[in-house]
User: What shape does this take?
Amino acid sequence: MPFFGLAVAVLLFFSSPTSSCTEQERSSLINFIDGLVPGGNGGLNVSWVNGTDCCKWEGIVCSTDEVVTYVLLASKGLKGVISPSLGNLAGLLHLNLSHNSLGGSLPTELLFSRSIVVLDVSFNRLTGHLQELQSANPGLPLQVLNVSSNLFTEKFPSTAWEAMKNLVALNASNNSFTGQIPSYICINAPSFAMLDLGYNQFRGNIPPGLGSCSTLKVLKAGHNDLSGALPDKLFNATSLEELSLPNNALQGALDGSLLVKLSSLAVLNLGSTGLSGKIPDSIGQLRKLEELHLDNNNMSGELPSALDNCTNLTYITLRNNSFTGDLSKINFTVLDLRIADFSMNLFNGTIPESIYSCSNLMALRLAYNSFHGQFSPSIGNLRSLTFLSLTNNSFTNLTNTLQMLKGCKNLTTLLIGTNFKDETIPQDETINGFENLQVLTIDACPLVGEIPFWISKLRKLMMIDLSCNQLTGPVPSWISGLHFLFFLDISRNRLTGSIPTALMKMPMLLSENNAAKLDTRFLELPVFWTPSRQYRSIIAFPKVLNLGNNNFTGAISPEIGQLKMLDYLNLSSNGLTGEIPQQICNLTNLQMLDLSDNQLTGAIPSALSDLHFLSGFDVSNNQLEGPVPSGGQFHTFSNSSYSGNPKLCGPILSLNCTSTATDQTSTSRWRNKRFGLVIGIISGGLTALGLLACFLIAKLVYDDHTESLVLLQRRY
Ligand SMILES: *[C@@H]1O[C@H](CO)[C@@H](O)[C@H](O)[C@H]1NC(C)=O
Ligand SMILES: *[C@@H]1O[C@H](CO)[C@@H](O)[C@H](O)[C@H]1NC(C)=O
Ligand SMILES: *[C@@H]1O[C@H](CO)[C@@H](O)[C@H](O)[C@H]1NC(C)=O
Ligand SMILES: *[C@@H]1O[C@H](CO)[C@@H](O)[C@H](O)[C@H]1NC(C)=O
Ligand SMILES: *[C@@H]1O[C@H](CO)[C@@H](O)[C@H](O)[C@H]1NC(C)=O
Ligand SMILES: *[C@@H]1O[C@H](CO)[C@@H](O)[C@H](O)[C@H]1NC(C)=O
Ligand SMILES: *[C@@H]1O[C@H](CO)[C@@H](O)[C@H](O)[C@H]1NC(C)=O
Ligand SMILES: *[C@@H]1O[C@H](CO)[C@@H](O)[C@H](O)[C@H]1NC(C)=O
Ligand SMILES: *[C@@H]1O[C@H](CO)[C@@H](O)[C@H](O)[C@H]1NC(C)=O
Ligand SMILES: *[C@@H]1O[C@H](CO)[C@@H](O)[C@H](O)[C@H]1NC(C)=O
Ligand SMILES: *[C@@H]1O[C@H](CO)[C@@H](O)[C@H](O)[C@H]1NC(C)=O
Ligand SMILES: *[C@@H]1O[C@H](CO)[C@@H](O)[C@H](O)[C@H]1NC(C)=O
Assistant: This one.
């Protein structure tokens, strides 16, 4: 063996070039790999062998004179700590350890290295704080520092930056840094161009000193606890191309005379900051503006017509402010909008014809305003339109609206409820097109008429909401032919007949395999369920059958048990009779079951307590009898879930079950079952913990969900 080892060493010695990395470099690197946990070295140990030329090791790049200059180990699955020994690599210029699972602290030897120019440790689990520089320093070479998406805490350094005279880019976003934004971050750095401090816990004012960063192009500090007004001096940073400070508690208005100084601005994001006042006319001088986000503020007044001078504008959101007036002051012809959200304001008037010339417009939300009128055939020019929300305005002529919109072939999401007051839902067979429609809401108009046949031709439909209308007639049997439908809300209508068995055959509700075929793409704009709850993709919505508050009669078919994917089932406030089928206990995903206000008889199936995700249950006001289920989720339901059923009995009800022998056995059977469950959870170990977590999440989702249904928030 020793001879063999020697032979290899000799071979390596002769086969490698005359020079190689130094012994010190080699051991610095070996020390680094020694800081990683077993199994967390990403297989580096295969090539990183002590005694061989480290310039040939995986991820190491040397200069022509064999000095280690690059250590490129991003996304290697590294776990463990970063050894300070890397600081001994005297010629190291570029260290990239991003996208690993490294913990511990960032060694000061690296942060204040006298050689490193680019240091990227983003997307790891580094903790602790970044040190201040202890001693005065003539200047460090660091140009790029990316410590983003780690677990850093505590006060962000303030003086350390004074030594970084070459700093160009600093990304510290997505950590838990506290304290103030350092005032003089660029004081000594004449080329400082990018600062991202978003998603931290920075407090205090935006330092006016940032205004002297004359080469600063990107300033992002959104999602912090910053307060105060935008300092006047900030607008002296005239190279800014992106200013993003969303989700802070700022105040004051946009000063037009200052804003105009930022003539290079392409992105202005001051959403959810509490800003007030008008959009200044001078915004029209920001000719390079591409994105304007002023959503969720306290802004008011009319939109300046000069906005149409921003001919590069592609994204505008003014959602949730108090803007007034009519959009026709703006000549949309000259804009090339892709995404526009004007929802939740006080806009009125009709939709300006010029908006139809934005042929690249993909998403338009006008919901919750006072727009009125009808659409012109030119809306068909919006060939790229995929998302349109008109909810809660005073638009008229649903037939016409659908006729006009069918020209928008790419439409996937159409939210038009709370309009078309008291109109009749068109039965018109000529309503066709919409071949890509996935979401359709026409709720709360209210509309009269029957559920129309043209809906059966919307082959890609996943969600339909026709709730809160005055629709009559039966649920059509073609419903099961909509192969992607998983959300059906027809509650609060005057529908009659029995619950059709077609509903029990809806493919998306039958099996996981079918549901896997659903489109997972992100929506151009999120769909809001409540102002605080939004969905970015359609598949994130729960699987829902809501037939509540109609005039349905007859029994609940045992076939209901086939809808294994169902999250929410509401059959309340109908005239349903017969027993609750045992098969309902097969709906293992169910989070909410509401059968209240019917004429159901018989017992409540005891196996309902096996539904681990059930967090809402209501059978009140029926004619049920016998014991209420116990165990599982049932300890969380109060007696109001059962009220109005005088023959139900159980520990939380006024009627004792102990009066008969059969009830006795059923109770003790439950006890055994509960005991079994406890044992199951203990032996289930981690799996059970996972299950508990799932349940908690499910419960949160559910709580919000019910709230919205109870409050009857409209989707928009
Ligand atoms: C690497 O090998 C050298 C001898 O070639 C030895 O002196 C040194 O301690 C080793 N380094 C490590 C980190 O094992
Ligand atoms: C580090 O590597 C990742 C993954 O290859 C890359 O995305 C990132 O840009 C690199 N960082 C720097 C500063 O070049
Ligand atoms: C870290 O930030 C630098 C500077 O912006 C950037 O070049 C690099 O790509 C970022 N790293 C990752 C992994 O995104
Ligand atoms: C900073 O890093 C985060 C990821 O950690 C990234 O999302 C963000 O875009 C980066 N900022 C800039 C300005 O590149
Ligand atoms: C924030 O960091 C976490 C953990 O590294 C990561 O999963 C997440 O994507 C990051 N968020 C952003 C916006 O980059
Ligand atoms: C902005 O810079 C100009 C000179 O470039 C200077 O005269 C002015 O006082 C500065 N404004 C503020 C608010 O500091
Ligand atoms: C919004 O502005 C109005 C006056 O326009 C003011 O009365 C109100 O207090 C402001 N709301 C907030 C949250 O600042
Ligand atoms: C809107 O702009 C277009 C193109 O510049 C122009 O032809 C049209 O006359 C303008 N419309 C109005 C109402 O100003
Ligand atoms: C319509 O959607 C398809 C598929 O997403 C896309 O390829 C096409 O470019 C879109 N058409 C327009 C006019 O945007
Ligand atoms: C609705 O629009 C259609 C054209 O699509 C028209 O024939 C009808 O008269 C309009 N109805 C009303 C009430 O305006
Ligand atoms: C079920 O539907 C009825 C009628 O629409 C409604 O009042 C009730 O709140 C719904 N139940 C739940 C739990 O959402
Ligand atoms: C139920 O029976 C128990 C004894 O088994 C008794 O203590 C309790 O008072 C009874 N409750 C009611 C409401 O009758």
Q: What stands out?
A: The chain is about 15% helix and 20% strand. Confidence is low (pLDDT under 50) at residues 1-18, 661-712. The longest strand covers residues 522-530. The domain at 474-510+542-661 is CATH 3.80.10.10 (Leucine-rich repeat, LRR (right-handed beta-alpha superhelix)).
